[in-house]
Amino acid sequence: MRALVLGGAGFIGLHLVERLVADGHRVTVVDDFSRGRDDERLGALRHSPAVDVVSADLTAPRAWPALPRDVDQVYLLAAVVGVRNVEADPARVLRVNTLTAAHLVDWLHPGPKVFFSSTSEVYAGGVDAGLVPVPTPEEVAVTIADVASPRLAYAISKLAGEALLLHGARAKGCPVVVGRFHNVYGPRMGTDHVIPEMILRALAGENPFRIWGADQFRAFCHVADAVEAVVRLMATPAADDQIVHIGDDSEQTNIADLAKLVLRLAGVAPDVRHLPAPARSVQRRCPDLSRLRRLTGFEPSVPLEEGVRQTLDWYRAWRAATPHHVAPGGPEGVRSHGREQS
Questions:
Q1: Which listed site, 10, 91, 208, 306, has its alpha carbon 20 to 30 Å from 299?
Q2: In 44-121, where do the E strands start and end?
Q3: CA 29 to CA 15: how far, in whole Å?
Q4: Residue 18, domain member (yes or no)
Q5: Cβ contact 97:117 at 8 Å
């Protein structure tokens, strides 16, 4: 099988590429490397005869004619992400994310199956308003409480992408799976999302150790489980043209308890300071995975403690090898800079 992974040098993207190659597939990675870094893991893939790497700006129409068209699957993971990116320039988030999805629809031809990476952020307004249950099923209405809110620009861009792909790709004869990711974490994620940020501050010896939104709850999903879910969905015809949650509903973790776990695994015991949650950060988030289970038989396999330990070990090694701590390759798109608990 041949796969085209747009945003394949980013966090989930590179883990997905590694999995596809391990499964015996040929992969073309496309990235502009503004966020997904050209690091040693991508370097190792460059030496594989099964991988081609293309540097391209997917918001530019001229980039698309050069991409290979003889592919069986297309994964759109490229996007601008991160709370500070969104709050600093929401118009850019909207422009980049929707343009990339629109250009993909224009480029598509009948045949390949498409995966579109979406987000649990689309439920934030409904959860805040008490209209959406937690755990959250896909059938609930999505709510944009304030279209002028910078924080919600990311969710709006992803909803636009969902609509573009579900309508446009189907019109081109291409089945689509929309995966709404819920709090995926793991090695090589970047430096600002809640788990890596906590890890790096713990390893740096921060004291007092700050915890934003200690009373909030999240259901964290290790990237290996997220990739497993994506691979299964793309191999399941019954998932075509559906919106499906990707996450881990086996445990909802209090942010204060997450901090205790990180500090224990890091071997440090600083004083702790509780601070207000990030603006517009929802109180609780957990997916209902009934649809994913029904379609694929998926079950999460990486417990939180094991996943956080793996992630901490990776970041400890990365700190030792990176004197100036340039951000490692992270979630698809440009570097995020927010204390994000989305």
A1: 10
A2: 51-55, 73-76, 113-119
A3: 12
A4: yes
A5: no
Quote the CA–CA distance of 8 and 32 in Å, as a whole number.
10
Q: List phi, psi (to 5°) of 42.
A: -70, -35
Strands 73-76 and 184-185, by their bridges, are unpaired
DSSP string, 19-61: HHHHTT-EEEEEE-SSSS---HHHHHHHTSTTEEEEE--TTSG
Q: DSSP of 277-311, one letter per residue?
A: PPTT--SEE-B--HHHHHHH-----S-HHHHHHHH
Q: Which domain holds residue 73?
A: 2-184+221-246
Report the distance separating Cα 218 and Cα 185, nearest Å.
Answer: 12
- 222-249: average pLDDT: 98
Query: 81 in a domain, yes or no?
Result: yes
CA distances from 47 to 56, 68, 74, 96 (A): 20, 19, 22, 30
| 234 domain-assigned | yes
Phi, psi values for residue 223, rounded to 5°: -60, -30
Angle between the N-to-C axes of helices 194-203 and 255-266, in degrees from 0 to 180, rounded to the nearest 10 = 40
> Cβ-count burial of 176 within 10 angstroms (0-12 exposed, 13-18 middle, 19+ buried)?
buried
- List, in sequence order, every beta strand (DSSP E) within the chain: 2-6, 26-31, 51-55, 73-76, 113-119, 176-181, 184-185, 209-212, 217-218, 221-222, 242-246, 253-254, 272-275, 284-285
Report in angstroms the alpha-carbon separations of 39 from 95, 321, 322.
Answer: 27, 12, 11
pTM higher than 0.85, yes or no? yes
Nearest Cα neighbor of 172 from 184, 182, 180, 164 is 164
What band does 197 get if pLDDT is binned at 50, 70 and 90? very high
Mind listing the pLDDT tens digit for each residue in 65-95? 999 999 999 999 999 987 778 889 999 999 9
Contacts of 148 (CB under 8 A, 6+ apart): none
Domain count, the chain: 1
The CATH number for 147's domain is 3.40.50.720
